[in-house]
Structure formats: structure tokens, C-alpha cells
Specification:
single chain, 7-stranded mixed sheet, Rossmann fold, 5-stranded parallel sheet, 3 domains, about 500 residues, pyruvate-formate lyase- activating enzyme, disordered N terminus, alpha/beta
């Protein structure tokens, strides 16, 4: 049994942490495609580097059932901390799940991730099931927290010296033993040296790597999209190409061990995907990483990037980074061993969001349609298969905006063929989450009622902690709203048919 299977048996000893291997995993994911969430992977790696055992939970938080957690308490014997990445989108299900786990185990519960980092006090107030609220990089604080707990569970409480050391941490809120403690809660933890973070590939087994590995080796991007919920906007930090080369070597050794020899490794397992916010946030770094892949047995499965990151500003305005584009060659993109299934294959995921200039300005995107068209054609000439994120509507989308985007999608599809694609199902509605410029802008314009909520977290007598649980933004224009509803969850989308149908239904009024 590999070390990565620690979650299949009880843990004895001074303490252990239970993490969700992929809290966002779609129910029924087939074997061989069960990726490990990068946040959980990094925290688990840091814990094991500190000598702390890790137990895995393997189910989706947004759709868990009682069967999923049956027997978890027995498996988690010796676990004294449960960690969960928390998002607004599944807050209610996470709250119910943590309530069950709290009653079934003696473990402390810690939540981190997007919602606690952006709204720590609201999370702290409305999620009493959690003992700890952590802001920022969990791998920076969870191992220190485990050492501080020293194997203690909730029923034992914390000794005075432990509380003193807890107060010396940063980016943390704690509730327990009838007290509340804030340890520099205004701070967001970020790694001082990304190269120093351990990645323990012994945590991975064949089912996690048969389709390749997904890495997140940088944080942040240089742009300021108005709907973005990240607290790393305008920041970028990532591992160096030298460190990346070491990571590839460690992953290769793990593949050899898992499959019993390098020649027995499935071709797809050599694929490397980057889920960074913007892989091209530092173009020179990205170019050097691509060079490392080019000279290795591995290939690039995909990366995410902004359209703008493919351009540089020169004396004559914006110009494509041709040297970077040239590095997207078969030696980097194509599998080097075995037969690899390429159905639905995309190599670049682009944060395009819209093909209409008015919408791009409304969303706070740095690029415009001209840059999108130029990039699509350049990538298509090289045979690079693209998936463009498309947000079909927001509160202020007009019929003209819809037609502009549909015309552009159809035109690019006709000119560039299968290399160009829109990620499906498309994002039918923008979601303006609390504290984002998008949400605040709607409030200033008197349009906040267009933000449809599935609920509101509230504490009687303390309106400052009210927190809206956003479902989606509803367009003011009813024709646009109907168009968005028609796209919700649809895949595949026949874009020429969508354009023809839009023109037929809207007629001349569509351009008003």
C-alpha cells in the first residue's frame, strides 16, 4: 500500500489531518481522472514534510450524502484536524457537512480558501461549525497549527501556552473553549519563497495520474477584472524554471514507481496541465518552463492564461510575443510516448470572457476584440487547440452586445476551424460576488436587485455581518435574459444556429 493511501486505514500516533482530496470533484468521476486538488496537494505535502500523517476524504462537498461519510469517523481515528477549502458556491452544503463531522469526530475543523480569505469575519460568524478560519496559503499555516495542537482534540481544549502560541500566528481566527481569538486576521498568508514549498508525489497513485497531472505553480495575475474574487489581483509569484525541472524529475520517479518501470507508464500520464490563474503572468518564466518541457519526456496538456499576456507593448503599440508562441510547438504539445486519446482536447484555456468590446470594458478586461482575433488566428495557424471562456450575459448586456459576440464566435469558427473553441457549457450569467468591484458597481448604479441570491447569511442585530449568497446576475434586458437562460447548461452549442435564431427572434429590435 502506497503512502498516498493513508486514508484507507486508521491512523495511530500523536495526531493526523484529514483533507478532502478534491472537494470540487464531479460526482461519478471515472477512475483515472480523479485529480487531486492543488490546494489539498500542497497542504498535504507540507504536512508530510513536517512528519504529520494525512488522511483523505474522497467525495464532492457540494453533493455529499450520508453514505459518503458513513465510516469516516472510524477511519479518522487519531485525526485531530479536518481541513476544508470553502467556496461561496457550496457554503450551505459545507456547513451541513461540517456539522455532521463535528458531531461524529473529536477533531478541530479549519476552513480556508476563497471565501474565508476574502470575507474572514463573515465566515467566522456564520460558520460556527469551524474552529479555525484561515486566510491565504494553507500550506504556510496548517503544519504549524498541527504542531501547536500536539495531537489534542476539541474535547481536551487548548492549554494556556498553546493559546499564547496560537495568538502569535498570522491570518487566523479561532473560536473554542468559550473564547474568540484573532491572530493578525487582517493578514493574508502568502509563501515567502515558492521554490521552498514541498510537493510530495508519494501522495499520488495510478488513479490520480493515469490522465496526467494538474499543477498550480504560481499565484495571482497582473490584471484587475472587475468580477474577480481573487485577493492576488495585481500580484504574481511562481516557482522558478529550475525548481520546475526538479518537480518534473520527482514526478517522473513517482510514475516509474507506480507503474513498475518507465516503459510501462501510460502515454497520457506524461501530460502536465497548469491551473495557474495566468500561466503567462511572467512571460519570460513561462518560456523557460516550456523549454524544460520540450527537452523532457513530458508534454504540455494545457495551461490557463489571459489574452493580454500573449502581447507586449512596444513603440508601435501591442504586439504578439512571437518567441513565446513559437515555443508552442509539437515538441511541447504532443505526447511523446504511446497513444493518447484526444477527444475534447484543449491545450490553452483563455480568459476571453466576451468577444464584444463594450462587454470587455464592462468586465474590466485588459484586452479587446482585435487582440482576441489576432491571437486566435496566430494560435490556430500553429494548430494549438483553444477553449475560450465566454460569459454570455451580465446585468447590462444589450441585444447589440449579444449579436456582436455571436457574430465573432461564428466568424472565428469558420476562419480557424477546430483549433478555435468556446468552453462548454458556457457561463450563461456573470456572478458578481460580494466585495468585488462588479458587485459594488451595481450597488452604486442602483442595479443590485439584478443580483439574484439563493439566500442571505444574517445575524439578528448585527447587519454588518450580512452576507449575500449570490446565484447569478440577471440581465435588465429581457431578451438578453431569455438568451442566457437558453444557454444555461447547454453542450454542445451550435453557434451558427444560435446566431440565426437570435436574429430571427430579435429582428431589427435586436440592435436597439
Amino acid at each position: 500500500m502506497g503512502n498516498g493511501d493513508a486514508g484507507t486505514r486508521p491512523i495511530a500516533g500523536p495526531g493526523a489531518a484529514l483533507l478532502f482530496r478534491n472537494a470540487l470533484e464531479r460526482p461519478g468521476a471515472p477512475p483515472g481522472s480523479r485529480a487531486v486538488h492543488q490546494g489539498a496537494f500542497m497542504i498535504a505535502s507540507a504536512l508530510r514534510a513536517a512528519g504529520i500523517p494525512v488522511v483523505w476524504a474522497d467525495f464532492c462537498v457540494s453533493s455529499w450524502s450520508r453514505e459518503d461519510i458513513r465510516g469516516l469517523a472510524a477511519r479518522a481515528r487519531g485525526v485531530n484536524l479536518i481541513g476544508l477549502t470553502l467556496y461561496d458556491s457550496y457554503f450551505e452544503r459545507a456547513k451541513a457537512l461540517l456539522g455532521v463531522l463535528r458531531s461524529a469526530t473529536d477533531a478541530y475543523i479549519a476552513v480556508g480558501g476563497m471565501m474565508p480569505t476574502r470575507s474572514p469575519l463573515e465566515t467566522f460568524v456564520h460558520l460556527p461549525e469551524a474552529d479555525f478560519v484561515v486566510r491565504g496559503a494553507g500550506e504556510e499555516i496548517v503544519p504549524r497549527l498541527m504542531v501547536l495542537l500536539g495531537g489534542r482534540g476539541r474535547s481536551e481544549g487548548l492549554a494556556p501556552d498553546q493559546l499564547s502560541r496560537l495568538g502569535a500566528l498570522e491570518g487566523l481566527l479561532f473560536a473554542g473553549g468559550g473564547m474568540r481569538l484573532g491572530a493578525a486576521p487582517e493578514k493574508i498568508l502568502r509563501p515567502e519563497d515558492p521554490d521552498a514549498a514541498p510537493l510530495d508525489f508519494e501522495l499520488l497513485e495510478a488513479e490520480h495520474v493515469a490522465s496526467g497531472i494538474e499543477l498550480c505553480l504560481s499565484r495571482g495575475c497582473g490584471y484587475g477584472c472587475l468580477f474577480c474574487t481573487s485577493t492576488d489581483k495585481g500580484l504574481f509569484a511562481g516557482v522558478s524554471p529550475r525548481r520546475f525541472s526538479e518537480i518534473l524529475g520527482a514526478y517522473g520517479r513517482r510514475l516509474e514507481k507506480i507503474f513498475g518501470g518507465f516503459s510501462r507508464v501510460p502515454g497520457a500520464a506524461f501530460g502536465i496541465g497548469f491551473y495557474d490563474d495566468d500561466f503567462l503572468g511572467d512571460p519570460a518564466r513561462a518560456w523557460r518552463i516550456l523549454r524544460v518541457i520540450r527537452k523532457s519526456p513530458f508534454f504540455l496538456r494545457f495551461f490557463q492564461a489571459s489574452v493580454s499576456s500573449f502581447f507586449r507593448r512596444g513603440a508601435r503599440g501591442l504586439a504578439l510575443e512571437e518567441t513565446l508562441l513559437d515555443e508552442l510547438c509539437p515538441e511541447v504539445l504532443e505526447p511523446k510516448f504511446g497513444r493518447v486519446e484526444k477527444t475534447g482536447w484543449h491545450q490553452v484555456y483563455l480568459g476571453t470572457e466576451s468577444f464584444c468590446d463594450a462587454e470587455l470594458e464592462r468586465l474590466g478586461k485588459a484586452h479587446r476584440g482585435a487582440q482576441t482575433r489576432q491571437l486566435v488566428e496566430a494560435l490556430s495557424r500553429r494548430g494549438v487547440r483553444q477553449a475560450h471562456h465566454f460569459i454570455a450575459s451580465n446585468v447590462r448586456t444589450t441585444p447589440r452586445d449579444v449579436e456582436d459576440s455571436l457574430e465573432s464566435i461564428v466568424s472565428l469558427s469558420q476562419r480557424c476551424g477546430p483549433a478555435f473553441g468556446v468552453l462548454e457549457p458556457v457561463i450563461a450569467h456573470l456572478k458578481s460576488f460580494p466585495l468585488t468591484p462588479s458587485y459594488e458597481g451595481l450597488a452604486r448604479r442602483g442595479l443590485i436587485a439584478q443580483v439574484r441570491l439563493r439566500g442571505r447569511l444574517a445575524l439578528k442585530g448585527f447587519p454588518e455581518y450580512d452576507y449575500p449568497l449570490v446565484d447569478h446576475d440577471e440581465p435588465v434586458d429581457e431578451r438578453v435574459a431569455a438568451f442566457a437562460r437558453g444557454l444555461d447548461g447547454v453542450a454542445p452549442v451550435d453557434w451558427p444556429e444560435q446566431l440565426a435564431r437570435w436574429r430571427s427572434r430579435s429582428g431589427a429590435n435586436a440592435l436597439s
